[in-house]
Write a structure and sequence with these properties.
The protein has 491 residues and is of the alpha+beta class. It folds into 3 domains: 182 residues, no CATH class; 262 residues, no CATH class; 40 residues, no CATH class. The chain has 14 helices and 15 strands. Strands 2, 4, 9, 10, 11, 12 and 13 form a 7-stranded antiparallel sheet that branches. The protein has a two-stranded parallel ribbon with strand order 1-5. Strand 7 and strand 8 form a beta hairpin. Helix 4 runs parallel beside helix 7. The longest helix has 30 residues. The two termini are 28 Å apart. Bound molecules: adenosine monophosphate and magnesium ion (MG). The site of adenosine monophosphate has 18 residues, from loops.
Length: 491
Amino acid sequence: MQSERFFLNPNLKLENTYMTLPSHLFSKLLPISVPTPKLILFNHTLAHEIGFPTNSFNENDFLSFLSGNKVLEDTMPIAQAYAGHQFGYFTMLGDGRAILLGEYITSNGERLDIQLKGSGRTPYSRRGDGKAALGPMLREYIISEGMHALGIPTTRSLAVVTTGEKVLREQPLEGAILTRLAKSHIRVGTFQYVAKWGSLEDLKALADYTLKRHFNCSSKEENPYLYLLHEVIKRQAQLIAKWQLVGFIHGVMNTDNMLISGETIDYGPCAFMDTYSLKTVFSSIDTEGRYAYGNQPLMAKWDLARFAETLLPLLHSNQEEAVSIAQKAVSNFSALYQHYWYNGMCAKLGLQHQDIEDKELIHTLLNLMETYEADYTNTFYHLTINQVSGTKLFDSKEFKDWYQKWQSRLKQEGTSPDSIQNLMKQNNPVVIPRNYRVEEALEAAITHHDYDVLIALLKVITNPYNYDKIDKSYMEMPDSNGCMYRTFCGT
Ligand code: AMP
Ligand code: MG
């Protein structure tokens, strides 16, 4: 290690409590040096939110920090080991192109991982080059910030720098590094790794660490590990319900891409649905539709079952008992998910309370949307502003019947039209990061180094519930059939 790889910034302290875990859970290493780093995007809003000491850096050190050319003195970056089921098949993975610089304590006392993605090979790179191309890193920046603005728990994006190097994919592409922030990077796959290759003590250490870092487990809990399982299931039920409610399709819900903290991670082949259909798939590699829109709750449950399996030895000393406890916990997922989803759907329709017949009301609307190939986001937007004519759906007899039922149901609530509309405005975004808009922004950025389109898009999608100031061009559906759109893995 050369001394010029380190710098001092008394205003920035990074901790690394993850290194208190058994040493085979991570590998210490420095990011690789890159020739000519250039700052492309910096998230000033986020930096401000977390009290990141941007101003206390000199320009060179800042760029060196964000590109991995220099690391903070007294910190030790690491790559984390993890395993995972990818499309159903178990395999060893780990941070193959990401390095955790350390944990930053925000001005609110929250602990956040600061990770560089695309920062060179690690012991877990397998055949990969450890690098990332500019397009996928910008894509992650856009979508993660869009998700955050929609109110969905997610990792955040602090910065994107280009490296001055080409990365070789099907063709040479501009190399880039994303600075990602997360409550932690502990995944279902991290537990799978320890359960498979670690000792019972290692598993206990990871579970205890996770409980301490993310969950407020009272000492009165009879079995803290069962509490952990219940809480992780609950957070995932909440998260997936939020995805479904805005039409977000992750694309690769492998167990290594499920964070224990309940944040969304890894924006590879993800996209937002235009026309409503449960079968919507965007990912080019998801040929069987395993991770299709309508399958996401089921796949989350599948992933959670894998998580529960890792905890078995901590749930009960008798294996049969442990399996029965785990099964019971995982089976709760469906009811929890339904609960959060119906609550969310009722809010989208302006209903503050739930009635037994609301389920039918909701499903009838969704079925009509599917039949008449209605745009998911725009349908709810038009219901919100009560402008319901001029589309195949709105002009259909079935919709008009539905509308009457909805209106009488709203009357039954006894709330004022204003409060109904306010509730709807808070739950029905005006804009989502539509695929063709994202692609257009990436195209301008990558081909022409024109970032104006991307900046304009970011401005709109980071304020998605603003009904007062609407740029209608961002609400338009794609020209051709948006369902034909394909996204590719971000490697
Ligand atoms: P992802 O599809 O980004 O969730 O990555 C799945 C696995 O592949 C993780 O272990 C990554 O670290 C690894 N990986 C993805 N891209 C690369 C790359 N370019 N070089 C090395 N490892 C990679
Ligand atoms: Mg991943």
